[in-house]
Amino acid sequence: MTRQDVTQHGRPRGGGRGPVDGPEALAGVASVSRETAERLRIYVDLLLRWQPAQNLIAPSTIPEIWRRHVADSLQPHLCLPEARRWVDLGSGAGFPGVVTAILLADKPGAHVYLVESNQRKAAFLRTALRETGAPGTVLAQRIESVAERWSHGPVDAVSARALAPLVDLCRYSRAFLAQGAVAVFHKGREFRREIDEASHTWSFDLVEKVSLIDPDSRMLILSNLAVRSTEEGFPE
Ligand SMILES: C[S@@+](CC[C@H](N)C(=O)[O-])C[C@H]1O[C@@H](n2cnc3c(N)ncnc32)[C@H](O)[C@@H]1O
């Protein structure tokens, strides 16, 4: 898709899988400033231009990109509005990490670290941060090695969406939570089973919020994460 194929509202001009929804899809979730809406539009336009070559998001979700991806990605910031320094694990095309960075663009000290091991997606993420002016750094490495060798100072919050079961997200994020960060994870309708499974290995304080996009999904907010000792031993 060329730039001419995209309208000023981030909608493709026909073709592909039909019309794309627009920024009005954010209305039921949060109101954003004009500047933030403009940065989000630049990001969606860029993603739609890169999509044919890079397949950054599932093609079936493109017609509802604003609701399914952008509005959904407003939620970590809504859950933890005071957090300024974030790590987003497995950022993919930038949901929710790039959206969080855009929401924080005018906040002093704001920074979002985007951890994404796929080099082509990492290149897209760098371009998205540059073109939107959002504050962030792309770490194009495996989460496990980034967490082990973290040298970027403390963070307030960790996010992850569509990355791994909760039990694994606890393992990925434990170094950050041990330093006082709070985690906020998108979870689908299997959230209860995932909480039960993770609870065998981990103890944590948990706040559940019903997703503003899908009432069967949850935003899970975890803090005070600790490993339970078990007969099987400790998680690796
Ligand atoms: C299913 S996608 C989800 C992307 C995005 N968070 C979203 O919700 O659209 C998972 C992403 O995590 C990345 N990923 C998976 N395991 C990873 C790891 N151990 N370290 C770094 N990135 C990882 C993959 O390359 C992929 O882009």
UniProtKB/TrEMBL annotation:
One GO cellular component term: cytosol
InterPro entries, per database record: rRNA_ssu_MeTfrase_G, SAM-dependent_MTases_sf
Keyword terms, alphabetized: Cytoplasm, Methyltransferase, rRNA processing, S-adenosyl-L-methionine, Transferase
Role this protein plays: Specifically methylates the N7 position of guanine in position 527 of 16S rRNA.
Name this polypeptide is given: Ribosomal RNA small subunit methyltransferase G
Subcellular location per the Swiss-Prot or TrEMBL entry: Cytoplasm
Pfam families: GidB (PF02527)
Positions with a binding annotation for S-adenosyl-L-methionine: 90, 95, 143-144, 161
Similarity comment text for this entry: Belongs to the methyltransferase superfamily. RNA methyltransferase RsmG family.
Signal peptide region: none
Stretch list, region Disordered: 1-25
Species per Swiss-Prot/TrEMBL record: Polymorphum gilvum (strain LMG 25793 / CGMCC 1.9160 / SL003B-26A1)
Domain of life, per lineage: Bacteria
GO molecular function: rRNA (guanine-N7-)-methyltransferase activity
This protein's record includes keyword rRNA processing: yes
The reaction(s) this protein catalyses: guanosine(527) in 16S rRNA + S-adenosyl-L-methionine = N(7)-methylguanosine(527) in 16S rRNA + S-adenosyl-L-homocysteine
Keyword hit for Cell membrane: no
EC number: 2.1.1.170
Coiled coil stretches, renumbered: none
